Amino acid sequence: MTGKRFLPHSPGAWISTAAGAALVLVAWLVVILWPDASYPAMKADCDRSELFVAGGTDVSLKNQRRALIRQWNEGLRPDGSPHPHATLVEVSESTDLQHSQIKAVQESGSCAYDVLITDNTWTAQFVDAGYLRPLDGIDDLDDFFPAALRTGEWDGEQYAVPFNVDVGLLYYREGAALPTAWQGLLSSDVAMQLADYEGLTVNALESVWNDGGAGRLTGEDRPSEDELRSKVYPALTRLAPRARGSLAASRQYGELQSIEAFASGTRLMRNWPYAFSALASEPRMRDGARLRFGVTALPGRTVLGGQNLAVSRHSPNPGDAADLVEFLSGTSSQRLLFSCGGFAPGRYSALGLSPGHHSPADVKVPACSTLTGEPPGPGEVELPTEAQLGQLGRAVVTALGRAEPRPVTPHYSTFTGTFRGCVQKIFDRAGTDAEAFAQAVGRSLDGRTASC
């Protein structure tokens, strides 16, 4: 089909963890046998001034992460000397592969990476394993959204700062009726992400949290096995008939597939902020500069996703790496990523807000051409416009007020693999009972292999 421009996004572009051991092996082979001589750091060349930033494939609109690295390379230090050259190493579109390779490189003690772009669920594991340096001297920490900033903390110390935030949003086609409660959303014509990858964990957690009286499975407060048995498990069993009925198609959807379903006619969609710019650039979803869809906050609590910036413990240039983190997480960089790239920022100031006293109505962001000084070419329409970005920004700020982190544990990868495996069995009526569910999920939070 023509006109498709959609790209997968890191918070959910995960592949099945069934091949987890194989991924780690592949990552180790990449570290040991990297064939590209143009990347000397992978060959343990630690006597260097160049900085290497490791993260997922740049799926921002028009590759704005790469543009920020170019800005850094063209910039100067306060003393007038040039910045050390930085290179963006795009590991993979798959978050599982990103995690496996970056973890393998850090575990080997290699100096290959200086700055790490990490999923916000990795902080506990990476700090616990000694992969990260504490971040000191980052300006205006109060300007970051507090919940997003906390995802970079561990044991009272800051190890990472937000690069972009993610919250679940509700996209709707023109004329669609908006549900006011979660159960109404589940019974609507909605595209969600229920395929066997991290998106299933995210969507299932949101349903558990919005079930009404369901036990918490979020943050550092670990649920008891009784809570898993008596509250979380029943919430998932109430979701299961929807997964076999009105949400059956969503069991095949990741972010990419749900965007395509929405563009092809589905009335509603749950997705991340980046989908707004992807849809705005899709000819089927606009009439000139007018968009045929809108966005608002989900009718309930949502997962707080996003990616953070951290300095590798093994960087040979930690001071320069910290300066690069400060540049990439600064207001101007975050504003560019939002207006031009579609990534929601981690700072109030990037949305024209001040910490403390503000409302979603106060959001004000410039269009991309205003920031870059490069207006659209002849016959081109600038999308999103300032007004459209304002709608997205208001939805993000509203959703942030309802956002919850996924379970905070050094063993998150074990938890999410176990949890979504159990959810699949509950959906499939595969014989998993409350006791097996509670024991398996409880064990996974301690890093012990388990299944339902």
From TrEMBL:
Keywords from the UniProt entry: Membrane, Signal, Transmembrane, Transmembrane helix, Transport
Pfam families: SBP_bac_8
InterPro entries (UniProt xref): SBP
SUPFAM superfamilies attached to this UniProt entry: Periplasmic binding protein-like II
Transmembrane segments: 12-34
Gene3D superfamilies named in the record: Periplasmic binding protein-like II
Entry's family note: Belongs to the bacterial solute-binding protein 1 family.
Descriptive protein name: Extracellular solute-binding protein
Species in which this protein is naturally found: Actinomadura chokoriensis
Lineage: Bacteria, Bacillati, Actinomycetota, Actinomycetes, Streptosporangiales
